[in-house]
Specification:
Length: 106
């Protein structure tokens, strides 16, 4: 997910911010339609589901109650954890990433 204030940073520092209007996107953004779950896995004790939000670089932990569910009970998201960023540059502690498969970063 974008860090808090990312669009404001864009507004303040982008060379083309005056030419691009994000107001409609900001007004319509709601997590329920933008989290993009990709994969899930159950915990060993079957009490939690871990949902990978691949496009958002995050994991949601869903608590799953045992037994039958009704309208007032059922699974609920208990936390969302960002996976953070990886610096693939030489300065980031890696040898870089070879995007064209030419062996240049090996």
């Amino acid at each position: 997910p974008l860090p808090l204030g990312a669009l404001e940073y864009w507004d303040d520092h982008s060379d083309i911010a005056a030419d691009v209007d994000f107001s409609a996107a900001r007004a319509s953004y709601v997590p329920a339609t933008n989290l993009e779950p990709e994969y899930l896995g159950w915990s060993a004790d079957d009490t939690k589901i871990f949902v990978n939000l691949q496009e958002n670089s995050a994991i949601i932990t869903v608590s799953v109650p045992s037994g039958a569910w009704d309208g007032s009970s059922g699974p609920s998201a208990t936390r969302i954890d960002a996976l953070g960023l990886k610096d693939w540059s030489d300065a980031g502690g890696t040898a870089g990433i070879d995007l064209v498969k030419d062996g240049d970063c090996v």
